[in-house]
Amino acid sequence: MSTTTTVQEAAAERAGAEDAKGAEPVFSVDGLWKVFGPKADRVPADPELAALSAAELRSRTGCTAAVRDVSFDVRKGEVFVVMGLSGSGKSTLVRCLTRLIEPTAGTIAIDGEDVRAMDRARLRALRRHRAAMVFQHFGLLPHRSVLDNVAYGLEVQGVPKRERRAKAQEVVAKVGLEGMEQRRPGQLSGGQQQRVGLARALAVDPEVLLFDEPFSALDPMIRRDMQEEVIRLHGEEGRTMVFITHDLNEALRLGDRIALMRDGRIVQLGTPEEIVGSPADDYVREFVRDVPREQVMTVRRAMRAASAQEAGEGPALSPEATVSQAIEAVARSGQTARVVDQGRCLGVVDSDALLEVVAGTANGSAGSAGSAGSAGSAGLAREGVA
Ligand SMILES: Nc1ncnc2c1ncn2[C@@H]1O[C@H](COP(=O)(O)OP(=O)(O)OP(=O)(O)O)[C@@H](O)[C@H]1O
């Protein structure tokens, strides 16, 4: 597989992202807290304690607030990335979704059902059928074959042998492990083992796949392959995915929307274009400083109203075309490029405006991606040129 795919090409492979627009939530999280330490409950309940910095909270109470008053929805069919530096609370947040970690306060619903009210049997069913987790350490059973490892989740569910083997075989093929069914995990590379872990989660056909930094132990080329695998699978199936990473490039490649965490809070939630183009604060700005903006930003950022003459000539681009694609079109034609949606000219982009986006000096133009948390597209173009 190519290792030179650009950010926008990777995103362009991802079908179904547009479907995530405005879709109903799978997970709805409101006012979620997870506090570790003695008498943790009092922290979210007491506004004075809740307002303390991490260090002050620790010295006053001995508690760590790993997740602080977090609210968001995961929409059906989207890839929702939780990103942040080590210790920002990503794993704790995602583990709270299925109560692998018990939240301290707040509400969590899956398809409208209250997760915090579920009894043990319901929770087990949630984790087995509805929201399966793919871990970094995939926990494969060393003495079982690939096929039996993949079938394991179905075995736990009590699915008859013939049926689970057939399903496992199907999923093994889906993740590119055909021919390796009888190997033991020890006879596989790290990337192949990760595929087994992915196949095992897929075999139970969950509504949501939760990935906890699944690729961070892999070397960069294999990691890239696995990212492409996820993009491909998502394109084929449109399954909802929640993906934890501390790697910004991975977040931009995979995410329809990204929640950027710092010290237990979500500091910004938006499409890659919103995060890169309209950072919420200096922390986010610093985080995204080195991102190649032209590969993430769309022509909407550089667009201005067209004169009558401009509206009738020049190359046509879709509103989702990236600035990089627009630069190429403008350079080739020597004209302004039209941004056309369903035959209608929305505006034009010229080289000056495109360069301003690259330089980061454009001040959010017409049709800009909007504020954090707003409905948005994949941010990266699927079909660049109209
Ligand atoms: N069981 C625990 N007891 C006490 N503190 C904890 C516990 N688990 C996590 N923490 C603390 O909560 C904070 C968030 O941890 P978490 O593992 O969620 O972060 P993360 O962003 O996933 O980090 P990483 O990328 O390193 O996995 C950290 O300060 C961590 O030390």
Automatic annotation (TrEMBL):
The keyword Transport applies. Gene3D superfamilies: P-loop containing nucleotide triphosphate hydrolases (3.40.50.300). GO terms for molecular function: ATP binding; ATP hydrolysis activity. Residues 52-288 form the ABC transporter domain. Transmembrane segments: none annotated. InterPro entries: AAA+_ATPase, ABC_osmolyte_uptake_ATP-bind, ABC_transporter-like_ATP-bd, ABC_transporter-like_CS, Gly-betaine_transp_ATP-bd, P-loop_NTPase. Belongs to the ABC transporter superfamily. Residues 364-386 are annotated as: Disordered. This is Glycine betaine/L-proline ABC transporter ATP-binding protein. Keywords: ATP-binding, CBS domain, Nucleotide-binding, Transport. GO terms for cellular component: membrane. GO terms for biological process: glycine betaine transport; response to osmotic stress. Residues 364-379 have a biased composition (Low complexity). Signal peptide: none annotated. It comes from the Bacteria.
